[in-house]
Model the fold of this input.
Amino acid sequence: MLVISGRQGQFRELRFSCALVAALAGFLAGVPAWAVDDGPPDAKIELGEKVVVLPHPSRIRNRMAARDAEKADLAAIAELTAQANNLNQERVLFLADRDRFQTRKAEMARRIAETARRIESEQTVLQADLQAYRDEMERANAEIKEEVSSPSGRKDSATVDRLANWRQSLLLRQASLKTRVDQMDRERETLQNDRLNMTTTLQPVATDLSARGERLQRSAERAYRQLKVSYEYGLQIRGIVSGQYGEKTAISDALLQSVSEQLGALARQLGPV
Done:
């Protein structure tokens, strides 16, 4: 500071000091916000639409501030553990629904597979019967043709009757085979409809379960992250209250153990759902 004796000097000293303060204020006004160091960031816990701000321990300067931070963290822990319990119940329901869906899907697939195998087996037998019918019809036609082409004086009535009965038997057999073919076609169409119905029925359920699983995953990640912040903050505040100020802390060992167990349960939920 420039010192000048006398009243004039005092006036100049005051004017110089004011100018220095004004210059300093002008300089600070031109400093961008990002260049000002506010120290370590506070922890923030989002509880629905409410945000709980937990001041950084370095900014806790007295007993009252420590107790306020302890109270805020206890409230956050209570809310977060309740959310974790609700999340666990939702997961139990989700897993039960998913198991029921998987059982239903497996049962539908099993019935369709059994039907497909039965139809395939019946189709094999039917094809063999059709081929046997064609072979016998070919032999019958050959004999009938030979009998028709023989001189009328050499025709045997017994042979004619046999061929006629044979032909009639083959016609009845043909009708029976046609009925079986038609039935086979209907069963194949039913099988195809069952496969389509399985897809159209299960796909929306599978999509919904997938979306629920993803929501649960995101919720578990968020719950774990926030509860871990609150847990670690509680350890710090507990040390400040009991160690720095020598007072009994409300953040007990039992509470921290319970929160630690819930963190472990949430961590196990962070794998694929």
In short: Residues 157-244 form the longest helix (88 residues).
